Amino acid sequence: MGMNVGSGSGEGDMMVEMNTTPLIDLMLVLIVMLIMSLPPQTHAVKLDMPVTNNPPPDVPPPVIDIVVDFDGSIYWNSEVVSSGDQLKSYLLQAAKAEPRPEIHLKPNKLAKYDSVAKVLATAQRLGVKNIGILGNEALE
User: Fold this and answer.
1) What is the mean pLDDT of the chain?
2) pTM for this one?
3) Does residue 109 surpass a pLDDT of 60?
């Protein structure tokens, strides 16, 4: 693969280039052997997790269903919520109740995002902790 670029133009000139293919092969073998001899790296994160021995409660917490319908109307356990103040009072009672009830928010698949977000924001402002959103597949 070499080209003779010398001052002589005769056919008897000697090519003085070094063949580097065996050196490259040797270098690649040495790199592979080096990689194989390295110890495997373990990427473990050691965490000291707290140990809790709290038994589960004997009585399951009560469940409250909040349904947001497609037209923006809100139902609290199948009872129509007529105003935002009434929803606030219900949520405030739920936040202070012991044991704290689980609130299941069930928006209709045609409900506006704004209506659902207002219910969630009100619940958050009033300190409701156990709230979950049930998807549309649960309602069908």
Assistant:
1) 85
2) 0.56
3) yes
41-47 long-range Cβ contacts below 8 angstroms, 24+ apart = none
pLDDT tens digit sequence for 115-137? 999 999 999 999 898 899 987 56
Buried/exposed code over 54-92 (b: 16+ C-beta within 10 A; e: otherwise): eeeeeeeeeebebbbeeeeebebeeeebeeeeebeebbb
